[in-house]
Specification:
Elements (H helix, E strand, L loop, with lengths): L11 H28 L20 E9 L5 E3 L5 E6 L6 E2 L4 E5 L2 H25 L6 H31 L5 H30 L3 H27 L1 E3 L4 E6 L6 E2 L8 E4 L4 E8 L12 E5 L7 E14 L14 E9 L12 E7 L4
Antiparallel strand pairs: 1-10, 1-14, 2-9, 3-5, 3-8, 4-7, 5-6, 7-9, 10-13, 11-12, 11-14, 12-13
């Protein structure tokens, strides 16, 4: 029996399956390739936003430096704790040696000073009294005591004479005669005492008593001077001529000894210094007689010629280290001080970092 094949008519689904699906697959493959190309990491080497500083010398010691005042940055604190009642300067003010910077509360010391002045006044009055002795009004009183004692002696002498006559006549007992003699002796002792008191009064005060009184006055004046010094110390003054670079204290704040941070920072910035950190590996190539330049960060077109001042001959840990005793210090620097005149150039400020290039010693 023969089998006959029948052909099914082609539908739209057959046409889509045969032609559209391969086209969609090719499109997805193309999209995948494009996505991979667009999202792949690209390594670029962009130019720096600011061109780094370049050394003008063939052999160079490169170092970093920081601008500081000619007198170095002077951190002013308070020698005594207290509450600030008045700040007398502002940032940028020019100060001279002795210019008040700020003042602490001194009311307690002012009270102690008033008490001490009263004590000194009392002691001086006592000294004047001793030096004015004898008081002329007291002499007649003492003289009257002497006269009274002399009259008593005369009276007792007469009474004793009568008692002796009567005792001879056996009129009175011997006991009464003894009592009269004792009374005369007592009257004579009182006369001597009154005469001695009169002489003591006429002689005036004892020289040593006056010396003791003078010493007491001197000590009291010294105590008052100490209080005045303590009051004066509550007004913190500048010890150098310069400019106020920073003020970190306000009225009403309590300051201790030492404070947690400098209260006022001063410095003379007519001529600025640059503190340069030379790495210990470059110390052998450093020569203080060679020329040097400073270039501010962010302003490479400006170059400041430097003049050597001194070397601080102590190789110390780099300032960027914390300084903990558990820290491994592997970077040490030699600090070199240069000066430059900022006049006629763009200003550099204290604390600003600069790049320093020093002509190295030839090999």
């Amino acid at each position: 029996m023969a089998i006959t094949k029948t052909r099914r008519p082609r539908s739209i689904a057959d046409i889509l399956t045969q032609f559209l699906l391969p086209l969609v697959g090719l499109g997805l493959m193309g999209f995948a390739g494009w996505y991979v190309m667009e999202t792949r990491p690209v390594v670029r080497t962009p130019l720096p936003p600011i061109e780094p500083a370049r050394s003008p010398y063939g052999e160079t010691v490169a170092a970093s430096g920081i601008v500081e005042a000619q007198t170095e940055n002077i951190s002013v604190g308070s020698a005594t704790p207290g509450v600030v009642v008045e700040v007398l300067v502002r940032v940028g003010d020019e100060v001279q040696a002795g210019t008040p910077l700020f003042r602490l509360d001194d009311r307690q010391l002012q009270g102690e000073l008033a008490v001490q002045r009263a004590i000194i006044s009392q002691m001086k009055s006592e000294l004047v009294r001793l030096e004015a002795e004898p008081r002329k009004e007291k002499i007649p009183v003492r003289q009257a005591d002497v006269n009274e004692a002399r009259a008593a002696v005369i009276r007792e002498t007469d009474a004793l004479r009568r008692a002796e006559d009567m005792w001879v006549k056996k009129v009175i007992p011997e006991q009464e005669l003894i009592e009269r003699r004792e009374a005369l002796a007592g009257a004579q002792a009182k006369l001597e005492s009154a005469q001695a008191n009169l002489k003591l009064l006429e002689a005036g005060s004892w020289e040593y008593d006056r010396d003791v009184a003078r010493a007491a006055v001197t000590r009291a004046e010294a105590d008052m001077a100490k209080i005045q010094v303590d009051i004066d110390r509550l007004v913190v003054r500048s010890l150098v001529e310069g400019r106020v670079l920073q003020v970190n204290v306000r009225p009403g704040e309590f300051v201790g000894t030492p404070p947690g941070q400098p209260l006022v920072i001063l410095g003379n910035i007519d001529t600025l210094h640059v503190r340069v950190d030379v790495d210990e590996y470059d110390i052998a190539r450093f020569d203080s007689t060679r020329s040097a330049w400073a270039v501010p960060r962010g302003s490479l077109q400006e170059k400041y010629p430097l003049e050597f001042v001194r070397v601080e001959p102590f190789v110390m840990p780099k300032k960027s280290l914390t300084g903990n005793n558990t820290e491994r210090v592997d970077t040490r620097v030699l600090q070199v001080i240069y000066r430059f005149d900022p006049t006629g150039r763009p200003p550099l400020f204290v604390g600003q970092q600069v790049e320093v290039f020093i002509e190295a010693r030839g090999k």
